[in-house]
Specification:
By secondary structure, this protein is α+β, with helices and mostly antiparallel strands. It contains 7 helices and 5 strands; from the N terminus they run E-E-H-E-E-H-H-H-H-H-E-H. Helix 1 links the parallel strand 2 (14-19) and strand 3. The longest helix has 42 residues, at 20-61. The termini are far apart. The structure holds zinc ion (ZN). Zinc ion is lined by residues 51, 55, 97, 132, 140, 225.
């Protein structure tokens, strides 16, 4: 039976799952870009998973429960029962993902002296760090922005402002993606736009229930980290697929 997602590992007690669409993508890649294209994609999604685990590590220490980490073609999603409500804790949790990516970039940069393959992974992790720091709520940069504004505006108003900026940036990114024929960027933009609204509503509902019953319900928050590979990794991807195709062409030529 075909399932919607497959458990690949359990890290810190968190199930890490791969969505069926990503598995299909990897299979297609193996046929279109060869083994190197597939290896590159696997390393990329392992980097995304580590980014999410960086967030989760802090979240667990701040008393949150992480249900699962799901890897999708548009990136990683850590599903949590709640986001730390203390601004300082949210800031730490949000910063932990980009920091993990930065450390991975340094590590792959060091490995890069041995093989060019690792240089492309260094670049993709650097991009993963910078892309997620864009203040486009609910991406990491937007969370850091909200945490920064909460003491000044209160949580609800800070979320409203962050979500508005997030939606404006998502629309801008989506339009740019359309003109640039970068359709993965368009899908990410739609996802971000939708997630910004959903999280604002969750905080709004929480606030209302707190006001009415003076005891808040847990909101179902989601931590998203879309990778930037859609854009910048394309040349690298193409380069590697050309290399691997040349490799297999040579192989078959020699056989023929
Ligand atoms: Zn992140």
């Amino acid at each position: 039976m075909i399932k919607r997602s497959y458990l690949i590992s359990r890290v810190m007690g968190i199930p890490v799952r791969v969505h069926i669409t990503l598995i299909i993508l990897l299979i297609i890649l193996t046929f279109s870009s060869g083994v190197f294209g597939m290896l590159y994609a696997v390393a990329l999604f392992a980097s995304v998973a580590l980014h999410e685990l960086g967030h989760s590590w802090v979240a667990i220490r701040k008393g949150c429960r992480v249900h699962e980490i799901m890897l999708l073609p548009i990136g990683g999603v850590a599903k949590m029962n709640n986001i730390p409500s203390r601004p300082r804790d949210e800031l730490l949790m949000a910063a932990a993902g980009p920091l993990t990516s930065l450390l991975l970039a340094v590590f792959f940069g060091w490995l890069g002296q041995f093989a060019f393959f690792f240089i492309s992974l260094r670049n993709v992790n650097l991009m993963l760090c910078l892309f997620n720091l864009i203040p486009c709520f609910p991406m990491d940069g937007g969370r850091i922005f909200r945490a920064f504004m909460t003491p000044r505006l209160g949580r609800l108003n800070a979320t409203a402002l962050a979500a508005r900026i997030g939606r404006i940036l998502a629309v801008a990114g989506g339009i740019f993606g359309l003109f640039d024929k970068d359709y993965i960027l368009v899908i990410i933009a739609i996802f971000i736009y939708q997630a910004a609204g959903a999280e604002y509503r969750a905080v709004y509902m929480q606030q209302m229930s707190q006001d009415w019953f003076s005891a808040g319900q847990q909101d179902a928050d989601v931590e998203v980290s879309p990778p930037p590979y859609a854009r910048k990794a394309q040349p690298v991807w193409k380069k590697w697929s050309q290399k691997s195709n040349a490799f297999f062409n040579d192989l078959f030529k020699n056989w023929g």
